[in-house]
Design goal:
alpha+beta, 5-stranded mixed sheet, binds zinc ion
Length: about 325
């Protein structure tokens, strides 16, 4: 593993969600002024690390067992790592090429062939990561049982400035660890409640799936997906491109509809696609998976979903009728 920490500036700050903030070395190379507000973020995981600069928006990531990417090499160069050291790091990484690395490479090839790709997008200006220092947003995410290891954001306001941003949670959309869009969920009661930057065919949550999981759950909302590590199709339909992406994950697919009219629409589409549907017998006031997680916890909710998983079209149709009647 590259010990990237050894190359980073020694002045650092760590957030509860595991991001290490330093003055970013990338900005001056990307037409921005030098970062003096520690807006470079590094997150280290078991498999590698990812870098996100909240000043110039430069991103890079590294996965143990893979070749260093073009952007990861750039970042190392900007951190003054000598070229021969970068080559040594690359060879060292390839020595650890794992089964997962090979499987991932195959997945990438399959994705390229099926034309599942998204362009890099920028997060809103002023994006910062939500942590305990932003209590309103932090509290909201805790109440909705959103795991702390996902980098949720917000737009910070300047103290005493006349204009303040609307309070809202920004969920970065990623695909293969690159930022490809986002959604903002506003916390005031004004409209619109959501603003999205979504590319056609995008499905949220592919990056939340672990290599050894056999099942994947498909829901409508991004907070539902986050609270149970599933996928979100982000509206009450599943487009053909989205279906291709979901199938490309190679898992057993189960759609978990919301208990509302949009949910009924999602059930019809799931049946059309030949996918399983799960409608656990939750009380009517429990509208979606996130409500269930808040009430029962993540594990019990997962068990309810797997127990109610239905593949028979007739049985799905029966449950659909029960739901439609109640609405
Ligand atoms: Zn930067």
């Amino acid at each position: 593993m590259i010990d990237l920490l050894a190359y980073l500036p020694s002045k650092r700050k760590q957030t509860a969600s595991g991001w290490i903030s330093v003055n970013a070395p990338c900005c001056v190379h990307n037409g921005e002024s030098a970062d003096r507000r520690q807006r470079g973020g590094l997150k280290i995981s078991e498999q590698g690390w990812s870098w996100h600069c909240f000043n110039c928006q430069f991103t890079a990531s590294f996965v143990q067992g893979r070749n260093l990417t073009f952007k990861a090499r750039k970042l190392l160069t900007w951190l003054n790592v000598p070229p021969e050291e970068i080559e040594r790091i690359n060879l060292e990484s390839l020595r650890h090429r794992s089964v997962h690395g090979i499987l991932d490479d195959r997945q990438r090839t399959a994705n390229a062939v099926q034309n599942i790709q998204f362009e890099d997008r920028e997060l809103p200006e002023g994006f910062i990561i939500v942590d305990q220092h932003t209590p309103v947003h932090w509290q909201y995410l805790r109440e909705r049982c959103i795991p702390q290891d996902y980098p949720m954001g917000m737009v910070g306001g300047r103290p005493n400035a006349k204009w303040q941003p609307r309070p809202g949670i920004i969920v970065p959309f990623t695909y293969e660890a690159r930022i490809v869009g986002h959604t903002t969920r506003y916390l005031d009661n004004k409209s619109p409640k959501y603003i999205h930057d979504i590319q056609p065919g995008y499905v949220f949550g592919a990056d939340l799936q672990r290599p050894d999981w056999q099942h994947v759950l498909v829901m409508e909302g991004v907070f539902d997906a986050l609270s149970i590590s599933g996928l979100a199709v982000l509206h009450a339909d599943i487009s053909d491109a989205q279906a291709r992406l979901i199938r490309s994950l190679g898992r057993e697919i189960t759609v978990v509809p919301d208990q509302d009219t949009a949910g009924v629409k999602l059930i019809d589409r799931a049946v059309e696609l030949g996918w399983a549907v799960s409608m656990p017998e939750w009380p009517p006031e429990m509208k979606d998976v996130n409500d269930a997680v808040k009430q029962y916890g993540r594990l019990a909710t997962l068990i309810h979903i797997m127990q109610a998983r239905e593949t028979s079209k007739i049985k799905i149709e029966l449950r659909r009728k029960q739901l439609a009647k109640r609405l």
